[in-house]
Specification:
By secondary structure, this protein is α/β, with parallel strands linked by helices. The protein contains 11 helices and 10 strands. An 8-stranded parallel beta barrel has the order 1-2-3-4-5-6-7-9, surrounded by 7 helices. Helix 1 packs across helix 2, helix 1 runs parallel beside helix 11 and helix 6 runs parallel beside helix 7.
Length: 339
């Protein structure tokens, strides 16, 4: 791998406890602007439903707002959960974004519903819809491509926009599909790290060059929270840990405030579960994180890293972004047009 790689940011538009959704979105805009200022490559948002602590359910709508409040950073979905939608609708939405913001737009696609079964039904979908994911991806690629001139159904906007499509996954299914279609692949190691090595190996070994991509391109995800000292970073990261505990308990709520005593909140079994799920996390000062992150990058050799910092304290998120250049591990894009 090269000495440095591009760095991107994944956001869930967290709504902190005591804040309104409008206030959470305002903080999200501030985060996107800080990411752009620092030199991040992409700013992606993820689709989730029925979660009061996440404001990115209407992903394309919020991305349009982010696009209007930034100038050059790539913006996109990481991802749209395609089983929730008709491919034509997503082609129209992201074709509209491309018309508004040009070549800044990315479209990452996931197979999971991004919600619970009851909400999935409220979306007028069925669990079997996920079985059509490969076909739906290809249908979406068709609508966004150049070959629909004689089709009775076309995406307006969308046709000929050729918005770049990525496949997201946490198993071998997405890796195999991305390889077969010759698309870039993103592994969700920030919350489901178990099959990271196997999935990216499978993708690289099975990759078939396409009109979209001539060689494999892997982006891996991690939790990254930098602070001026280790204790401060770990304190703020307890917000993410509490959110994971609540999720596994089936509890709802906004992004919780950090705590100095997680042991009063989780059981030993829950701690083990969270530690396992969030094992790809780099939390601490620049001096603490840099060698650990460098070792991780050397081991997996990703083409790009996408990080998230889903915490309560907005100042802590912004400070983490501000400190990122001090890692000296990434190709940060400043005062240039992003490719």
């Amino acid at each position: 791998m090269s000495n440095t790689i591009p760095l991107s940011f994944l956001d869930l538009a967290p709504v902190p406890e005591g804040k309104t959704i409008a206030e959470g979105i305002a903080q999200t805009v501030e985060t996107a602007q800080q990411a752009e200022e620092v030199g991040f490559n992409r700013y992606w948002m993820a689709e989730h439903h029925n979660m009061p602590g996440i404001a990115s359910a209407a992903t394309s709508v919020l991305l349009s707002h982010i696009g209007s409040q930034t100038k050059r950073i790539r913006i996109g979905a990481g991802g749209v959960m395609l089983p929730n939608h008709a491919p034509l609708v997503i082609a129209e939405q992201f074709g509209t974004l491309q018309a508004l913001y040009g070549d800044r737009i990315d479209l990452g696609l996931g197979r999971a519903p991004g919600t619970d079964g009851a909400t999935f039904q409220a979306l007028r979908r069925q669990m079997k819809d996920a079985e059509r994911f490969p076909q739906d991806v290809q249908e979406l690629m068709y609508f966004l491509g150049d070959g629909t001139d004689n089709s009775p159904v076309q995406a307006f906007p969308g046709a000929k926009s050729n918005v770049p499509i990525w496949i997201l996954g946490s198993s071998l299914f997405g890796a195999t599909l991305a390889a077969h279609l010759g698309l870039p692949y993103v592994f969700a190691s920030h919350f489901a790290p178990q099959m990271l090595n196997q999935a990216i190996t499978t993708y690289r070994e099975q990759f078939q060059p396409s009109a979209n991509l001539d060689k494999p391109y892997v982006m891996v995800a991690a939790n990254l929270l930098l602070a001026d000292d280790d204790a401060t970073a770990h304190y703020h990261f307890t917000s993410a840990q509490q959110s994971f505990v609540r999720l596994r308990r089936g509890e709802t709520g906004q992004m919780p405030k950090p705590t100095h005593d997680m042991d009063r909140i989780w059981s030993p079994a829950e701690k083990m579960m969270v530690d396992n799920a969030l094992s790809i996390s780099f939390i601490g000062s620049v001096e603490t994180v840099k060698p650990k992150l460098a070792e991780f990058l050397a081991k997996y050799e990703p083409d790009e890293l996408i990080v998230t910092a889903n915490v309560y304290d907005q100042a802590a998120r912004l400070r983490s972004l501000e400190l990122t250049p001090e890692l000296n591990l990434f190709t940060l894009q400043r005062d240039m047009t992003l490719a």
